[in-house]
Model the fold of this input.
Amino acid sequence: MRTLQIFAAVAGLCLPAFCQSPAELEAVVTTQLGTFRFEFAADKAPKHVEEFIKRARAGYYNDSAFHRVVANGIIQGGDPLLKDPKTPKTLWGTGGMNLLKNEFSDYKHERGTVSTVRIPGKDNSDGTQFFVCVFPQPPLDGQFSSFGKVTEGMEIVEQISRVPVGENGFTTQPVRIDKITIEKKKVEPYLETPVQELHRTVTLKTTLGTVKIQLEPDWAPNHVRNFLKLTETGWYNGTAFHRLVKGFVAQGGMGDQRGSGSTHPADRWVHNVKGEFRNDIKHVRGMVSMARADDPDSANTSFFLMLGDAPHLDGKYSAFGRIVEGLDVLEAFEKEDVDGETPKRRLEVIQAVVDPL
Done:
C-alpha cells in the first residue's frame, strides 16, 4: 500500500484517501527537536501548495534539515542536498531551486507564516526550500510566495531558530527533518455541534475538590461551545485559579498559568467570543461565567466561579453554566489565604473532562 501511495503521489494520481482539498489537509513536520504542523493557503499560492503536498507524500523532505536560522526570526529548510550529511556548507541552500514561478499575494509574512525560498534577485526561481517566520517579517510581503501558516508547535519553530549558528546564519549542526507527512486537518471540536446537543456537564477536578458544572447553551451557546472545546482538548488541565476574591469570584483558565508551559496544541482554536449577555440570568453563588477585558467581545479562555451574589455583573458578563455538585468546594475557596486577590498557594485545575452522555 505504501508503494502505491508513493507512486500515486509522484504520478499525480488521486486515490480516495488522497483526494481531499488542500483546505482539508495539514503538513506535519517532525524534526529532531519536536513536531509542528501547518495548514495550506491554496487560494494564495495553489501551485506551491500542490507541489509541496506531492513532494511531501513522496517522502522528498524526509531526512533533510533546517540549515539556516535567525534567532526568533526565521528558520529555513527543505534543501535536498542536506540529506547527505557530507554536503559541504558551501552548497547548503543551493539545492531544489528553479522549479516554480512566483505566486506573490497579499498573504502576510506574520508569525507562523510558511513561505518559499527563491534565488536572490532572480524572478521565478522558487523551489522546494521553504522558511517559517518566527516573528513578523513585513519587508518580505509581496516578495516571496507564502503558502501556509503554522497551526501547532510554534514553540518548536522558536527552538529551532535559537540553535547555534556560524557564518551566514548557517546552523553549526543542521536540525534534522525526520519526515514531513500530509494529514487530514484537525477539526475544532464542537464547532458545528447543534445547540440542542450542547447540554452537557463538565467535571472540574481542582486542588480543593471536584465540582460538576451543568452547561446552559440556551443562555450563551457560543460560550458553552468554547468551554466544551477547551475542556475536550485538555486545554484547561494544569491551569490555575490566579484570582480569588472572597464572597465574589474564583477566577482561572489562563494559558500562562499552566504548570507545564503556556503553549498547548489547542491554542490554534483559542479566539475571542462575542458577548452573550442576558439581564435575566443572575450572577449568584454557584454560577459559572466568562471573564473578559474592557471589550465586551474579548472573552476567550478565562472563567470564574461565583462565590457570592454579584448583581452588578448581570447583563455585562456571559454566564454559561452552574455548579450542580460540589458547592462545598466554593466554601474551601473562601478559606484560602490570599495576598490581595492572589491565592498564596497554587490552586490548580487538575483536570477538566466532558462527562459522557
